[in-house]
Design brief:
about 450 residues, alpha/beta, Rossmann fold, Aconitase, domain 3, five-stranded parallel beta sheet, three-stranded parallel beta sheet, 17 helices, 13 strands, about 40% helix
């Protein structure tokens, strides 16, 4: 994150801008609305001109990269920036943290990580940012309308907003802060119609039994993302997908590739037909998706042997909604089983969804079975990272063998935590948690 005090303005008198600026934007650069606004817009001008953006557009929402205490200087930066008096101009939600701020001492978080991380809360409040601390802000009510221009971080949120909701965003990165406090973003990238055209067609040739779980959609996303890279896949014959199916598909696409947008007419917002998705052009490539492709995706993300001991089950990547948590709670109750004593089960979600789950009794049901409902974070954004473990003298790896229903989680934990991984459907993950071994 750029230090709050380190600005290099080129908005000096007589400077010639390539971008077309409105009178209001010129006032912002001239400092009429304060130094933080002037500096933020100047950064955005430099950014836009570097990518030949013609002008700015107004954004209606921002999803902000919550600063994490496992990254040196990140929390200190936002605390310092909040003291400048900068405030966001549009509704702004926040992404995940490095620990659950309420339960950090239940699962081995070093106290310095918690103490530093907790400082972001007051900083965000000063800036007018909502402390959602989740990778699924849409589940907390942040649902921008179709064709609205926004700015977002977090790959699974970005692709969901672009594809399922039909809002328009690029990968925001550090510039998300500057857009949030100015309400502006350069008109470029996925905000332009021509860059939202489909490139590859995937015909999904699977039966409802073969292709039904969120993890199956996650496997499809992992398969397709490997093929398209950063381009725009179009999916035909997805059956009748649910919200969580499409969320899982997008999260995996953005993980195995760097996909920012996909189309699956008529289920996604932007287009009504396959032809419309390609804007009158022919696909670069057509791929027939078979059951073998889905199985191969599961296999590629699995390096635990059958019957091998496991010590961690992670479900909730991206963060679970209320109905997913209900399913887990009732699964344990109906099967009258508990998590194996050698296994940690995390159900990760947002603090808002956890509150609902607690009201409904689901949190206590999962805890009674031996699991934890964790908010604000996830394993790969936690103290369990190899680099953080080394810094604090913790055992490496913190996890030996993890089972998850998310291709995104399975992709990252090996590199970041150093554990073996098993990628399976949700019911199989829960059975592994009970058995203490890979099924």
């Amino acid at each position: 994150m750029t230090p709050a005090h380190d600005f290099s303005l080129h908005g000096t008198p007589g400077h010639e801008y390539k971008m077309k600026l409105t009178d209001e934007e010129k006032k912002m650069l001239d400092g009429v609305y304060g130094d933080p606004i002037a500096k933020a817009l100047d950064y955005l001008v430099q950014f836009g001109e570097a990518f030949d953006a013609e002008k700015f557009i107004d954004i209606t929402y921002a999803f902000y990269p919550a600063e994490m205490s496992i990254y040196k200087g990140s929390v200190e930066d936002v605390v310092e920036y909040a003291e400048t008096g900068a405030r966001v101009k549009v509704p702004t939600a926040t992404s995940t943290l490095a620990c659950d701020l309420e339960q950090w001492n239940k699962y081995g978080v070093p106290e310095p990580i918690y103490k530093l991380q907790s400082q972001v809360v007051d900083a965000h409040k000063k800036m007018g940012i909502c402390g959602t601390y989740t990778c699924t802000p849409q589940l907390c009510g942040f649902i921008p309308p179709k064709r609205s221009n926004i700015i977002s971080v977090e790959s699974s949120a970005i692709i969901y907003y672009n594809s399922v909701l039909g809002a328009r965003t690029n990968r925001g990165g550090v510039f998300t802060r500057f857009s949030a406090v100015t309400g502006k973003y350069p008109l470029m990238g996925y905000l332009l119609d021509e860059n939202r055209k489909g490139t590859h067609l995937f015909n999904v040739n699977l039966t409802p039994d073969e292709f039904r779980d969120d993890s199956d959609y996650s496997a499809l996303g992992f398969h397709a993302g490997n093929i398209v890279g950063s381009e725009v896949p179009v999916f035909d014959n997805l059956g009748i997908p649910t919200e969580t199916n499409l969320l899982a598909l997008g999260a995996a696409l953005a993980t195995s590739g760097s996909v920012t947008l996909f189309h699956a007419p008529p289920h996604t917002a932007e287009v009504n037909s396959i032809e419309e998705a390609f804007q009158g052009s022919e696909p670069k490539e057509i791929h027939e998706v078979t059951l073998d492709d889905i199985k191969n995706a599961y296999d590629k993300m699995t390096n635990i042997g059958t019957g091998e001991k496991i010590d961690f089950v992670e479900i909730g990547c991206p963060h679970y909604n209320l109905d997913q948590i209900r399913y887990v709670a009732e699964w344990f109750r109906e099967n009258n089983v508990k998590v194996h004593p050698d296994v940690r089960l995390w159900v990760t979600t947002s603090r808002m969804i956890k509150q609902l789950a607690t009201w409904e009794g689901y949190t206590s049901m999962i805890e009674a079975a031996g699991g934890l409902v964790i908010t604000d974070t996830c394993p790969v954004e936690s103290h369990m990272r190899i680099s953080t473990c080394n810094e604090f003298g913790l055992k490496v790896p913190q996890i030996v063998a993890m089972v998850t229903d998310s291709a995104k989680m399975a992709r990252y934990v090996g590199d970041l935590i150093g554990c073996k991984t098993g990628f399976r459907r949700l019911d199989d993950c829960l059975k592994c948690a009970v058995e203490g071994r890979f099924i």
